[in-house]
């Protein structure tokens, strides 16, 4: 869970009572010592699958945080690697970790790119967007990709009802809904608002051709029941 260098309970409480942007600015110096950072096993599994879909030249990490996903971009792309996030604190940490990458501070619902990348990835960010926000997010990624470009991101597969994780996520989302009903500014973070059907439907509406594959290398709830699915959304290329 939390490493010794991670945030205290008091620091987490202050973050949870802040806006999303301010909360991550506060958490940034210790973020990599929390369980919120995308595990290396998920990053490695994603890179392993995407290696079969290249080659890629320029890559974008959407909602890059402290830059964990840049490992995937830098591994797969021969050209420039770019990260975008709206937290200045998270971007500062990312710059330190990946000095050769480019960094842009922007709201992911209004990405400032057009036909600039062959690959876009995102890790652990969808829970910070309400379903009503996804059309703007996906439209921006679609616009940022070149024809034939690929948008890829892991989502959690539904956990078994009998598992502790199933009930934790239900309880967490309920707690956040209560918090946001009684406290301002809201802190948007939900586990159960980004199911496969809803996400792929929104991607299709944005113009993508989405599919999903099981990310079995990232772990299983039980044999044959993967913890993660990898969403692969291709921007059509009219010339092909």
From TrEMBL:
Any one GO molecular-function label of the UniProt entry: methyltransferase activity
Keyword Methyltransferase: yes
InterPro entries: Methyltransf_25 (IPR041698), SAM-dependent_MTases_sf (IPR029063)
Assigned keywords, A-Z: Methyltransferase, Transferase
Keyword Transferase among UniProt keywords: yes
CDD domains: AdoMet_MTases
Gene Ontology BP term (one): methylation
Residues covered by the Methyltransferase domain: 60-149
The protein's name: Class I SAM-dependent methyltransferase
Classification of source organism: Bacteria, Bacillati, Actinomycetota, Actinomycetes, Cryptosporangiales
């Amino acid at each position: 869970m939390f490493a010794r260098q991670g945030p205290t309970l008091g620091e987490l409480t202050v973050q949870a009572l802040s806006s999303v942007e301010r909360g991550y600015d506060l958490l940034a110096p210790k973020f990599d010592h929390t369980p919120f950072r995308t595990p290396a096993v998920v990053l490695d599994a994603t890179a392993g699958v995407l290696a079969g879909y290249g080659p890629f030249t320029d890559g974008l990490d959407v909602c890059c945080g402290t830059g964990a996903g840049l490992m995937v971009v830098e591994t797969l792309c021969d050209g420039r690697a770019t990260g975008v996030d709206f937290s200045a604190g998270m971007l500062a940490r990312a710059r330190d970790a990946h000095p050769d990458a480019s960094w842009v501070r922007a709201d992911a619902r209004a990405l400032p790119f057009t036909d600039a990348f062959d690959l876009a990835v995102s890790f652990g960010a969808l829970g910070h967007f309400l379903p009503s926000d996804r059309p703007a997010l996906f439209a921006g990624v679609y616009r940022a990709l070149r024809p034939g470009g690929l948008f890829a991101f892991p989502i959690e597969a539904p956990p078994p009802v009998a598992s502790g994780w199933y009930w934790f996520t239900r309880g967490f989302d309920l707690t956040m809904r209560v918090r946001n009903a009684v406290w301002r500014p809201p802190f948007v973070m939900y586990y159960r608002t980004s199911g496969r059907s809803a996400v792929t439907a929104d991607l299709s509406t944005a113009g993508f051709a989405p599919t999903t594959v099981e990310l079995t290398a990232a772990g299983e709830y039980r044999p044959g029941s993967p913890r993660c699915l990898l969403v692969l959304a291709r921007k059509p290329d009219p010339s092909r």
